[in-house]
Amino acid sequence: MFDALYLGKTDGGFSAARRRIGDDELAAATPEADVTVRVECSTINYKDALALTNRSPVVRRWPMVPGIDGAGVVESSSHPGFAPGDRVILNGWGVGEAHWGCLAQRARLRGDWLVPMPGELDARRAMAIGTAGYTAMLCVMALQRHGVAPDQGEVLVTGAAGGVGSVAVALLARLGFRVVASTGRVDEADYLRALGAVEVIDRAALSAPGKPLQKERWAGVVDAVGSHTLANACAQVKYRGTVAACGLAQGMDLPASVAPFILRGVTLAGVDSVMCPMPERREAWARLARELDPAHIERMTTVAGLDDALRLAPELLAGKVRGRVVIDVNR
């Protein structure tokens, strides 16, 4: 038996609670899995918060154990790439949505979904990074792939006090970029400067409807917000700059024009972390282990227990959670 967060939905309504689950029940719920992992740490992301509060139809199968991220040790495996004792990381692949996830002390997963944990990391640090940090690295890789370099000017990070934004600020600053952080929590300015931002601006400067083409400022952008913020960011990007879009905190819409793309050659690069091919995942995690300052990881991280995830979920959706939250599943 092990502890897990358990989501249920019946004619009587939605429920979310900590529950004891047996290994037989786990096996019956995950017949396609070929690796059993003793989860040490998970985390709570925006998508987890939606699942835990039932605010959006994220969960596609009921009942569900949420948790799109996990890190721990392989207990048993019939997958050729993993053996008992291997340390692994899980991000995405529909886990916590259509497949039982990692807000639990044990998970059964497909080996094809797992990334070997880099030697520089342990479970706590890996989950302090989590999908948010891994997504931030994919965004940085997208900017670099499209030729954005530190000598080309400032880089904007929106939603900067959140999980993706915090890691993006730290990574870009470490790589020598002049990072401008946009946030709705201006009281977090000192925190963002400590991560490496050279300037902190109020999100209100970007969140209202704006002109389709505006004064050029940004060599590149990491956007976790969407909607008017993304439209304005695109309108302010320099000639042949790139925007890496990975989030929708403001909305899924994009009230923009084609002007930045056809008059300035701006690239809008979509970044998906859920189904990202394995070679890019491994590259992202290898770079995170090397390039993300451990001191910054500590600065942006708090640790909580399984029960705390239920309390923190609505706070995260309301934008009140700074940086990253690691869930110690044994607490």
- In DSSP terms (H or I, runs of 4 or more residues), the helix count works out at 11
Cα Rg: 20 Å
| Uncertain spans | none
Q: Briefly, what CATH class of the largest domain?
A: Alpha Beta
Second rung of CATH, namely the architecture of the largest domain: Alpha-Beta Complex
Number of strands: 15
**Cα distance spanning the termini:** 15 Å
Provide structural commentary.
The structure is a single chain. This protein is α/β, with parallel strands linked by helices and 331 residues long. The chain folds into 2 domains: 145 residues, Quinone Oxidoreductase, Chain A, domain 1 (Alpha-Beta Complex), CATH 3.90.180; 140 residues, NAD(P)-binding Rossmann-like Domain (Rossmann fold). It has 11 helices and 15 strands. Strands 3, 4, 5, 6, 7, 14 and 15 form a 7-stranded mixed β-sheet that branches. Helix 4 links the parallel strand 8 and strand 9. Helix 2 crosses helix 11, helix 3 packs across helix 4 and helix 3 crosses helix 9. The longest helix is centred in the middle third of the chain and has 23 residues. It is globular. The protein starts with a strand and ends with a strand.
